[in-house]
Amino acid sequence: MQQIADAAGLSVGAVYRHFPDRRALIEHIGSESLQALNVSSADALGRIGEAEITAFDGLVAVLRRCVALPLGLTHSLIDDDHRDPGLPDLIARSNGLLLRLIALAQAEGTLRADFTPDAILVGISRVVCAPDVDPEGLEFAVLIDGLRAR
């Protein structure tokens, strides 16, 4: 908690006034991150529906947004008991929206169809949820290039 307090410019006591323990803090950050991901995914789906962008471009835009979020924290929240009863629904909604983007991109022929949407979601999460991924860096570029239909 000391590192978190230092990074936030707060005292440890101030952090504990808002979050009784590390777990509560992680759940809060995870929840906020998942909500932001859901907004980005829903926005991309809306833009695809209005023919402003392809589904693949929408997926890439969402993935670029993902790398800016601390989504790696959500991996520790998936199978655990939650104090926040809404967290499992947020996780399910995030996965559902991403799977819709993936399926739409596969249907339009811009995303590889030789992997299932679930397999693509797992591969994506391993890259974009890793700490310090640069959306302009090699890992992200290889991911996007590898997903593109040939």
Provide tags for this entry.
single chain, mainly alpha, 8 helices, 150 residues
Tell me about this structure:
- It is built from eight helices and no strands.
- It is mainly alpha-helical and 150 residues long.
- The mean pLDDT is 86.
Topology record:
Blueprint: H1 2-8, H2 12-18, H3 22-49, H4 55-67, H5 72-75, H6 87-108, H7 117-128, H8 138-147
Helix pairs in contact: 3-4, 3-6, 4-6, 6-7, 7-8
Number of helices: 8
Largest sheet: none
Shape: elongated
Strand content: under 5%
Portion of residues within helices: 55-70%
Q: Structural class, from helix and strand content?
A: mainly alpha
SSE order in H/E notation?
Answer: HHHHHHHH
Quick description:
The chain is an all-alpha fold and about 150 residues long. It contains eight helices and no strands.
